[in-house]
Amino acid sequence: MPEGQRGKFLERAKADLARRFGVNYVESIPATRFAGALEAAEQIVDAAIAELRVPAAPHRRPHRQLPLVDTTVPVPAAARAKNVANDALPGAGKLALSSGAGVPLTMSSREIAQLTGKRHDNVMADIRKMLVELHGEGGLLSFQDTHANEQNGQNYPIFRLPKRETLILIAGYSIPLRARIIDRWQELEEQAAGVRQVAALPDFSNPAAAARAWAEQFASFSASSRSQPTERSRRC
């Protein structure tokens, strides 16, 4: 491959990796180090797939293994935290999805107001009264948050309730309103379950561990794909 074309390929590969896994610092890795790390990862993936009794990719030429990142240059904690931070769902009723680290699902007071057709200030008052009775005045801080208004840029107070507190709140609502909230919770839990099934961000400071994890997920995906009936068999 011509040197110019090879350089463009490496830059495209780094950009794709950074976009796919949300690790922007990958783009700062020198091209030579990145190329060596790619080859090392490919060899490790081939070996891991063979161990899992999955047909291995074609043999590639030997190479000198290089780490994907320079471990002597620490990645700022703030940057790493930003890369792995959870994204809330789009829309007015944003949700704190579980990150797999025990972070619970929550529903905002704004979404509760929208689902029930109630005024947000009235919903806030109902939530405040409920939380004081359940947890006391000091317990309010655990549920308080702010919402940034896109029109004026100002922040307004909201509450974020876990499922238990949400169901307690709507216990006195009419059946149709309770049904809307419960249906929405089921939808959110299904979405969160799908998010938790997504592969965790690999440890790029350990290419061997990252490649082995990718190989195991590839094997699992291949096995599930083989177990699914084809389009033709479903028609028969």
Write the layout of secondary structure elements.
Elements lengths: L2 H19 L9 H21 L25 H8 L22 E2 H8 L3 H16 L8 E5 L6 E7 L1 H7 L5 H22 L10 H21 L3 H5 L1
Antiparallel strand pairs: 1-3, 2-3
Helix pairs in contact: 2-8, 4-5
Quick overview:
With 236 residues, this protein is mostly helical.
Number of strands: 3
What's the number of structural domains? Answer: 2
Helix content: 40-55%
Give Rg in angstroms: 24 Å
Low-confidence stretches at least 5 residues in length (pLDDT < 50)? 65-71, 75-101, 230-236
What is the straight-line distance between the termini? 47 Å
Principal-axis shape equals: elongated
On the 0-100 scale, what is the average pLDDT?
69
Label this structure with key terms.
single chain, about 240 residues, 2 domains
Describe the structure.
Residues 65-71, 75-101 and 230-236 have low confidence and may be disordered. It is built from nine helices and three strands, in the order αααβααββαααα. The chain has two domains: 3-69 and 204-235, no CATH class; 107-196, no CATH class. The protein starts with a helix and ends with a helix. Strands 1-3-2 form a three-stranded antiparallel beta sheet. The chain is mainly α and 236 residues long. Helix content is 54%, strand content 6%. The protein is elongated. This is Rha family phage regulatory protein. Pfam families: Phage_pRha.
